[in-house]
Design brief:
mainly alpha, about 90 residues
Length: about 90
C-alpha cells in the first residue's frame, strides 16, 4: 500500500518528531532508572537518524507533485499497530 502525505501533513509530522525529540531529551535528563534511560537514549538516536535522513533528502528528489513541489518517496516504512513505544 502506498501512503502519500500532503505538504501540510508532512510539515506536521516533521514538527511532531522535533517536538517529541525535545520532550525526549528532557525525559532522559529527568530519568533516574539507568535501564530506562538507556532505552530512551536509544529511541532518541533512532529518531534523530530518521530526521537526519529526511532532512538530507531535501533537494535531492527529481519527483514533483501536481503543483511542482518536491516529493520524497519513502520506500519502506514499518508500522507497529500495538501502540507500544521504545
Amino acid at each position: 500500500m502506498e501512503v502519500a502525505l500532503t505538504e501540510e501533513e508532512s510539515a506536521a509530522l516533521q514538527q511532531a518528531l522535533r517536538s517529541y525529540l525535545s520532550d525526549l531529551r528532557m525525559e532522559i535528563s529527568d530519568t533516574e532508572d539507568r535501564e530506562w534511560k538507556e532505552g530512551l537514549r536509544h529511541e532518541r538516536e533512532v529518531l534523530e537518524e530518521v530526521v537526519s535522513k529526511l532532512e538530507a533528502s531535501r533537494g535531492s528528489s527529481e519527483l514533483r507533485d501536481a503543483e511542482g513541489r518536491e516529493v520524497v518517496r519513502v520506500v519502506s516504512f514499518w508500522w507497529n499497530d500495538d501502540g507500544g513505544g521504545a
